[in-house]
Every structure is written in C-alpha cells, then in structure tokens.
Amino acid sequence: MLNSNPSRIVFGLSLTLGIIIAVSSNSWFTSWLGLELNLLSFIPIISSSFNSYSSEAALKYFLIQALGSAMILISATSMSVFLVNPSLLTLGALLLKTGAAPVHFWFPPVMQGVSWPQCIMLMTVQKIAPLFLLSYAIVSLITSATVMICSSASALVGAIGGLKQTLLRKILAYSSINHMAWLMASAFLSSNLLFTYLMVYSIVSSSVVFLLNANQIFHFKQLSSIPNTKMKTLSFMALFSLGGLPPFLGFIPKLLVINLLSSVSELLWIFILLVSSLITLFYYTRILLTTLTLSSPKLKPLLSESTNLSIYILSFINFSPLLFPLMAFYQF
C-alpha cells in the first residue's frame, strides 16, 4: 500500500498504532486520541503536492473526520456537564467517520480524488477503529434502532448510487457503502463476526483493487485494455466475490450475517440487505460484460511476472470456500 518513501512508512506505522490504541482502549477519551493519531497519519499518505485532486480529497477527508472528532468531544461534555447519555451523538460521529448513510456524502468524492492504493486503505483500514467503537456504542434500544435504520439506508444508497456511475473508483465507493450495511449488522450481532467480515472484505476488495491498479484502469472505457483472457477471468471472480455470489469467498460472511439475523428474527433487515446485494451484483455484471466482450486494438506492455503472480494468488483466494466448505457452518 505504501511506497518506499521513509516518511510514508513512518506515517503507516503511526496509523496502525492509532488503530490499536482506539480499539484496545477502555475509555472514550483514549479512543479519541487513537482516532486523532490515525487521522493525522493518514492525511500525509493521501495528500500529494503533485496532484491537486489528492490534496482536495485530503482536505475534505480532514474536515469530515475533524467534525466527527468534535462530535465525540461534545458527547463527552454532555455526559459530564449536562448528565445526558451521549451514546446517540457518539454513534452519529462514528457513522460519519465510516461514511455510512445518511452521512455518506463525502465518501465517493474522496475516493475519486486518491489513487488505488489509498482507495483500498480508505475502504478497509480506515474503517477498523470506527466500526469496533461503533459496536461498543450499541448500548441501548435507541442506539440499536439507529444502527438498524442506518444499515438499511446504507444498503439502499450503496446499491442505487452505483447504478449510474461509470468511474470505477466511485463504483467501489458505493460498493463500500453497501458493505457498510453488512458491517453494521455484524457489529450489531457480534464483535467476532465483525472481525471476520472485515477481514474477508479486505481480502476480496484488495483482489479487485490490485487488479485495477496493476492495469491502471479508472473508467469503463479502459476495461477493454485488460491485456488477456486470464486477467479478465480473474476480474470476473474478484467482482462476483465482492458481490457475495456463491461459491466465492465473499459469500461466506454474508451467509453468517444472514444466519445470525434470522436467529433474532430480523427478517425485514435481511430482506433489505439481500435486495441491495442483488442490485450491486447487477452493476458488477455490467462491468464484467464490458470487460469480457470488448477488446482493445492497442497493445499494452505486459505486467511483470511478480505482479502477475501476486494477482493470481490474491484472486484465487476468492475460490477458497471450495477448498474449505465446512467453514460456512462456523458459528459465532
């Protein structure tokens, strides 16, 4: 994800330290410090003096995250001064930080302004601390209902918003918003399930982003430039796995979420999540049809053998449920 620049490596290490501090803390103040360390480490990673779009994206990201941090501080003040339960305000701040609906407005523009390696960090690494803190904030009936409503809204916004997009980074941004619905459902049910879903989502989305980054593809028109049939087949597997289609890896965590939601009789929530997944599969299929049916007359330089091997290994991980079928029955 990071290049060999020593400053980027230092910022990457402090970013990881911020996540560890935020997740492992036993007080909200220390968690806030971890979130701030994570934010201040990520801004230099996504900003670039040579690219005005990345600088604009970094500024947008900083302002939104600063607003979320301010809301957390206000909630702490309301608890100590006004003796008001701050859990709802804290939950709203964490939803803003993750880019979940209805406060998702900043996420697609920021994704569009950064490169593919920063995109995958924004989709996965930067969601770890807020999501686990969100699971800690579900302490009452009101917060549980809020998570259900925001999860359903994220599922619908992520599914419908991606239909009209032709820029691949924005498509993956709306896909990430849709997966936020499943991640919030996982946080509602179990921390172990949240960890499993986040880990599998990180692997599957990395397989998609790595393939697009290796071929430098950012728009529908560039899909025809994928060099050979093997690469097109790998994109087919990776995108369908991201959509949660069996028997690919992305189907396993969704099956676990559906299983546990059905055990607590949340049938309407399951219905909304499933319908939204079908819609996301539609625009993944649209990408695949473009990839498989079009070919470019221009010759592109071949990728290096090490890059090809990395893409093959990461993409074939999506077929791992065929090797370990019993893991679908693992309970939390």
UniProtKB/TrEMBL annotation:
Alphabetically list the UniProt keywords.
Answer: Electron transport, Membrane, Mitochondrion, Mitochondrion inner membrane, NAD, Respiratory chain, Translocase, Transmembrane, Transmembrane helix, Transport, Ubiquinone
Localisation per UniProt entry: Mitochondrion inner membrane
Return the InterPro entries for the record: Complex_I_Subunit_2, NADH_UbQ_OxRdtase_chain2, ND/Mrp_TM
Tell whether Protease is among the UniProt keywords.
no
Its membrane topology is listed as: Multi-pass membrane protein
Q: Extract the Pfam families matched here.
A: Proton_antipo_M
The EC number(s) attached to this protein equal 7.1.1.2
Molecular function via GO = NADH dehydrogenase (ubiquinone) activity
Per the UniProt entry, the signal peptide is none
Domain NADH:quinone oxidoreductase/Mrp antiporter transmembrane residue range list? 25-80, 88-280
Question: Main role?
Answer: Core subunit of the mitochondrial membrane respiratory chain NADH dehydrogenase (Complex I) which catalyzes electron transfer from NADH through the respiratory chain, using ubiquinone as an electron acceptor. Essential for the catalytic activity and assembly of complex I.
Protein name in UniProt: NADH-ubiquinone oxidoreductase chain 2
Specify the species: Alpheus hoplocheles
